[in-house]
Amino acid sequence: MKRKTAVMAVIPTLVAMAWFVVGIVNTAIDPPHTANQRLMRGDIHISEPAIQHILYGDHYGGGHLYGANVPCKSEFPSDWSADDVINTVRTMTANDNQNWRKEDNGYHVGENTVRGVKVRVVLDRDGDDVITAYPLNTRRNPCPRRSANDNTP
Fold first, then answer.
1. pLDDT mean by block of 10 residues, the chain; 153 residues
2. How far is CA 146 from CA 139, 143, 151, in A?
3. Residue 99: per-residue pLDDT
4. GO: which molecular function terms (predicted)?
5. pTM of the full structure
6. What angle do CA 131, 115, 86 make, to 5 degrees?
7. Comparing C-alpha atoms, which of 109, 101, 127, 121 is closest to residue 43?
8. Phi and psi for 129 in degrees, rounded to 5?
9. Are the C-beta atoms of residues 140 and 72 closer than 8 Å to each other?
10. Is 23 helix (H, G, I), strand (E, B) or coil?
11. What is the DSSP pairing of strand 117-123 with strand 101-102?
12. What's the pLDDT at 12?
């Protein structure tokens, strides 16, 4: 009877070890690639070109720092400095509880409200680099009017 009791006591430990090994093998075969898992490891980064894009804009767009005046773009509030904007992005990417969703274009998007501003951060398809960030609930700069004459260059 003692032997049967000893075996019964060991079974839960063996089952737990088996599930642990299965988890390791599955991770080795199909390593995690989601933004949430990268976020937990802390390896989402924001490059200097991405910072420039977010704050001042580039040939792709961007320019969301107050006063950048990029047509058709939303800007962060006037009381947000460049450091406030970038620190918000860094805080969002470092937050283990930040929810990221994968869009149809493959990019990962996270949103959070900070100091009354709803901020969207967009990560690349691998979920490890910040592409852009911008406010969602602030007014956009005016867009240029198109000429009524389609022949105007």
1. 57 53 44 48 84 96 96 97 97 93 96 98 96 97 77 56
2. 20, 9, 11
3. 94
4. endonuclease activity
5. 0.69
6. 30
7. 127
8. -130, 135
9. yes
10. helix
11. unpaired
12. 56
C-alpha to C-alpha distance for 132 and 54, rounded to whole angstroms? 6
Tokens standing for residue 127: 């979920």
Give pLDDT, residue 17: 55
d(CA 3, CA 78): 75
Residue 2: in which H helix or E strand, if any?
helix 2-29
Amino acid at 33: H
Residue 67, both tokens: 């006063």
Helix, coil or strand: residue 55: helix
Both tokens assigned to 30: 């199909």
